[in-house]
Specification:
Keywords: Oxidoreductase. This is FAD-binding oxidoreductase. Pfam families: DAO. It comes from Aminobacter carboxidus. InterPro entries: FAD-dep_OxRdtase, FAD/NAD-bd_sf. With 389 residues, the protein is an alpha/beta fold. The protein is 28% helix and 28% strand. The protein is built from 10 helices and 18 strands. The strands form 3 sheets. Strands 1, 2, 8, 9, 10, 11, 17 and 18 form an 8-stranded mixed beta sheet that branches. Strands 5-6-4-13-14-15-12-16 form an 8-stranded mixed beta sheet, with helices on both faces. Strands 3-7 form a two-stranded antiparallel ribbon. A hairpin with a 2-residue loop joins strand 14 and strand 15. Helix 2 packs across helix 9. The chain starts with a strand and ends in a 10-residue tail after the last helix. The mean pLDDT is 97. The chain binds flavin-adenine dinucleotide. Flavin-adenine dinucleotide (FAD) binds next to helix 1, strand 2, strand 12, strand 16 and helix 9.
Length: 389
C-alpha cells in the first residue's frame, strides 16, 4: 500500500493543472495523478470547442479566463520556446434581440469593469463590421476585439502533461473505484487494480464524472454529464473575420481552419443527465435546429453540408451552471474542481493555480475563488453565470 500527500482523481486539463501549479507554488509532498483514460479519448477537454472568452456575467469568471489569457500570451516563457497551442484571437460575438438586450448590457458593464476589450454595437454597426451577417431580429452584439478566440485543446493538455514528467509526480493509469472516509476525513482511495492508496488530500478533477466520484465519498455534488453535439460543416464562402458567434437561440458557430464548427442546439429545459458512454451524434439537431438558424443569421450558409460530428459531455452543475471550487466545508481534505458547465478548459490553469495557493499558502492569492465554494451547494444557493454557451 502506498501513501500520497495529494491524490488527484482525473488527469485531464483540470487535474493536470492542479498538479502543475502545486509544484510551481513550491509543494514538496508526494502527488499521485490518477487517470483511467490516458489517451483522453473521452475527456471533455479533448472533445471541447477549445475557445476562450471574457464575456461572462460574473467578475470571478472573467478573472479566471483572464489568467489563462495571460498564460497564453507568455506560453513560451512558461513551457519552453517550442510551446504552441495555435491560439487564434478571433473574438466572440454574442448577439441579443430586444429581450436579451438588458442582460447583454449588464454583462458588458461587468466585463468593462474587469478591463475586458469588448465593444457593444447596435445592428447597424454590426452590419458594417461583418458584411456576411444578417441582423434580422438583432438589437445589439458584444464583440471581443482582443483577448478572446480559440486554440488547440490537445496541444494545451500536452504542454501540462509534458511539464508534469519533470515534476516528480506519479502518473497512474487506473480508475478510482472507491473512496474511504473516516468521519470527516478522507483516508484512502481504491483503484480498479485493487490497489489502495492512502491520501492526505484528495482532489476531485473527474470532469463530467465528478458527481459519481463525490458520491463515493458520501458527498452530494450536483455535477452530471450533459451530452453536447458539435457539427463540422463546409461552406463555399470563407469569412476570415468571423468570430465565434452566438445567436440569441443559443446556436454558435466559428471557423476552424478551412471549415466551420457549430453547436448549441440542445434544449436544457427538463434535460436530464446523459449516459456518459453515449458518444453518438444526434444528427437531427443539425438539420432541424442548427441549419435553419445559421441560414437566417448568415445567408451564405443557406447551402452548407455537415461533414462530421462529435459528442462530448459538459461537466454540468445542475444548481447554477458554475464551477464548484475549494474544499468541502466539513470533509476538508476533499477538494472540488468541478462543474464548469462548458467553460472549464479556459478556466483550468487559473483554478489549478488557485487551489495550489490554497493548499500551499492557506489562502487564495491571485484570484479569490471563495464565491465558488461548496457551501452554496450545501445551502442550495445558486451563484448563477448568465452567459453559459
Ligand atoms: C462539446 C464541448 C464543448 C466545450 N467547449 C468549451 C470551450 O470552448 N471552452 C471551454 O473553456 N470549455 C469548453 N468545454 C468544457 C470543458 O471541456 C470542460 O469544462 C473541461 O475540459 C473540464 O476539464 P476536466 O479536466 O475537469 O474534465 P475532463 O476533461 O472530462 O477530464 C476528467 C478526467 O477524469 C477522468 N476520470 C473520471 N472519473 C475517473 C475515475 N473515477 N478515476 C480516474 N479517472 C477518472 C476521465 O477519464 C477524464 O480524463 C466544452 C465541453 C464540451 C463537452
Amino acid at each position: 500500500m502506498a501513501r500520497y500527500d495529494v491524490v488527484i482523481t482525473g488527469g485531464a486539463i483540470v487535474g493536470s493543472s492542479i498538479a502543475y501549479y502545486l509544484r510551481e507554488e513550491g509543494f514538496t509532498g508526494s502527488i499521485a495523478l490518477i487517470e483511467r483514460d490516458p489517451q483522453f479519448a473521452h475527456a471533455a477537454t479533448t472533445l471541447s470547442c477549445a475557445s476562450i472568452r471574457q464575456q461572462f456575467s460574473i467578475p470571478e469568471n472573467i478573472r479566471l479566463s483572464q489568467f489563462t489569457l495571460g498564460l497564453f500570451r507568455r506560453l513560451k516563457d512558461e513551457f519552453g520556446s517550442d510551446a504552441d497551442i495555435g491560439f487564434r484571437e478571433g473574438g466572440y460575438l454574442i448577439l441579443a434581440g430586444d429581450n436579451g438586450l438588458p442582460i447583454l448590457r449588464a454583462n458588458h458593464a461587468a466585463q468593462l469593469a474587469e478591463g475586458a476589450d469588448i465593444v457593444l454595437e447596435n445592428a447597424e454597426q454590426l452590419q458594417k463590421r461583418f458584411s456576411w451577417i444578417s441582423t434580422e431580429g438583432i438589437s445589439a452584439g458584444a464583440y471581443g476585439l482582443t483577448g478572446e478566440g480559440w486554440f488547440d485543446a490537445h496541444a494545451m493538455l500536452g504542454l501540462f502533461r509534458k511539464a508534469l514528467k519533470t515534476k516528480n509526480i506519479d502518473l497512474i493509469t487506473s480508475e478510482v473505484t472507491g473512496i474511504e472516509r473516516q468521519g470527516n476525513r478522507i483516508v484512502a482511495v481504491t483503484l480498479a487494480s485493487g490497489e489502495r492508496l492512502e491520501a492526505g488530500t484528495l482532489f476531485n478533477a473527474a470532469g463530467p464524472n465528478a458527481g459519481k466520484v463525490s458520491a463515493m465519498a458520501g458527498i452530494a455534488l450536483p455535477v452530471e454529464p450533459r451530452k453536447r453535439n458539435v457539427f463540422v460543416f463546409e461552406a463555399r464562402d470563407k469569412f476570415a473575420d468571423m468570430p465565434l458567434m452566438v445567436d440569441p437561440s443559443g446556436v454558435y458557430v466559428r471557423p476552424e481552419g478551412s471549415v466551420y464548427i457549430t453547436g448549441g442546439a440542445e434544449n436544457e429545459d427538463g434535460e436530464l443527465a446523459a449516459d456518459i458512454k453515449d458518444f453518438n451524434p444526434d444528427w437531427g439537431l443539425f438539420e432541424e435546429v442548427i441549419w435553419p438558424v445559421l441560414a437566417t443569421r448568415v445567408p451564405a450558409f443557406e447551402a452548407i453540408k455537415a461533414t462530421q460530428a462529435w459528442v462530448g459531455h459538459y461537466d454540468y452543475n445542475a444548481l447554477d451552471q458554475n464551477a464548484v471550487i475549494g474544499p468541502h466545508p466539513e470533509v476538508t481534505n476533499f477538494v472540488f474542481a468541478n462543474g464548469f458547465s462548458g467553460h472549464g478548459l479556459q478556466q483550468a490553469p487559473a483554478v489549478g493555480k488557485a487551489l495550489a495557493e490554497l493548499l500551499v499558502h492557506g489562502g487564495y492569492r491571485t484570484i479569490d475563488c471563495s464565491a465558488f465554494g461548496y457551501q452554496r451547494v450545501a445551502e442550495g444557493r445558486a451563484f448563477r453565470e448568465l452567459n453559459v454557451i
